[in-house]
Amino acid sequence: MGWPSSARSTGGASPATLHPPPPYNEKTAHEGPGPGPAPPKSVPAPAPIPVRLSTDTLHRTPTLPSPPPPGSFAALLLDNGQQITALRLPKRMIAPLSAAISGAWPDGLLRCAASPVQGGWEWELNGWPFVQHVESRRIIFAMLQVLYAAGWAVQCANNINKHHLAKGTIFLKPGDACAKTFFGISFFKEDRIRLIDAPSADLRAAFVAIAKTWHKGVQEAKEKWPGCVQVKLKGTPFYTNDRTEQDLIRIILLDILSAFDALGYELVTCIEMADFVRHEGTQPETWFFANKTRSREGSVRSSVYHGS
User: Fold this and answer.
1) Using one digit for the tens of pLDDT, what is the confidence trace for 246-262?
2) Computed from CA positions of residues 202, 249, 282, 160, in that sequence, does the dihedral angle turn out positive or negative?
3) SS3 175
4) d(CA 236, CA 238)
């Protein structure tokens, strides 16, 4: 079977079926060209669509809708190894978030004050919490729990700063207040998956059982720290150029998502939280899960996950 022709199809008749133009006639040339052959009835000639852009149109200032009131959207920035910034969160949220940070980080807060940016607030933590793999995730678990209880939900998360100390930004929007318990899956180095603070034994058992289906097997599966289960896979599944292995590790992750969903938990967002001074692409994101929200009627309602 030959390669397809590089000529672009227009949907009309082929050149072989078109009639040639009439020969030039000096007596009728001054009258302008004749009508020529009509296009095939099955493909009517499209009427031209005039496009006219005046100078006023090109240089006119557009009329924009009024901006939403402050607080319609907000953000949390994980700025560096020891600082968190809130943008456009109501001031009443600062005290409960400060308590959540202090409760999750044993060394506590060094400073909590308004930032130079209007509507901003900064927390500076003692020590370097974001170098600590488990504690750094627990800070975010605690803050998200407070935010959801107050009616703030994650819209999306990404890292728009490529500085080596930068981490993710969590974008928030108002929603229904609800009680959520957060936990996470982190991908560490090129071969390890960690489940942090899973709220049930069923989640931990499913996580380990699915990880062990990796076609090369696992080197170890153990509780690395209290509340943190680590599975070290054989090979380098998160740093491989082999397409088959890339697909197979994604099958593992799909199975984990399916199992957690069946147990009543959903993926809320993914956040970049490198534990060290990172180079581009050295560590994947952390997955943040929570229990599915129950509506007033008692049915389970899943919040839609918007990825970065």
Assistant:
1) 999 999 999 999 999 99
2) negative
3) coil
4) 6
